[in-house]
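Reopening this ticket.

The earlier resolution said the output was attached, but the attachment link was broken on my side. Pasting everything inline this time so it's all in one place.
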Amino acid sequence: MLAHPQAKIRRMFELIEPIATITFSEAVNEAFLALGMRNYWDGYFAGRAAPLGLAPAGVVHAVFYNFAEGEVARHIPWVWGKISPEEAIAVRERSSAAALRQRIGELADQPGLARAADLATRAAYSAPTEGRALYAGLRELDVPEEPVARLWHAATLLREHRGDGHNAVLVAHGIGGTEAHVLLALSLGMRAEDFGRTHHLPKARLAAVVDGLRARGLVDAAGGFTDAGRETKERIEALTDELAAPAYDVLGADELDALIAGLEPIAAAV
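Inline output:
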């Protein structure tokens, strides 16, 4: 049984996601481009993979899970010839915190943000690391002292902890990375061919993935969800929430409520 209601664990995901993913914004991209990255994806892989050290492309591909074959190798290890993992960690933290501060305005200096950062950090450093390689790598980094940076860092830890658990659930259900994107697209009411993370793939490769899901009874002839497909997607999300829940066990019910209340205006501003 979850220590906190599943609805609150899902709400934390909804609030943490926009705060953590400020790191994928244009301001952070520009900071990486200034250090010699060729494009957005160079900076993405340098920043997100940096806690893994000089891991080869195959390891990053395995940990990130949802990239098509060959996508990681176009950037790793090339980026490490231009920037070290330590430099990537520093520029990612600095530029992400600056982008978050700019986006939330006066909220950055309110006592509620510091309180939310403290509670989120307690949760972020209390979760189990077993089987969660990217989360464990982030746990080895220093905690920023400045509240906005600390909140971003904690949000990133909680996001990647949940993401590592999500990957485990996908593996257990026999859903590969590209297949997961197709299921996400369908849950958003989009065709796989129109979804941002799959539309660039060769048509034959994407068609083969959709055909495979169709053969398993998850996708219908028109390319939409079957009942079984929708149920599988919902079960994957519910189990992901369940695996994310232990991060919040360290917080009492009142503290979790306070964290949610503190994050809501920040997430809304982002």
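Reporter confirms the inline version is readable. Residues 147-172 form the longest helix (26 residues). Residues 47 and 89 are 6 Å apart (CA to CA).
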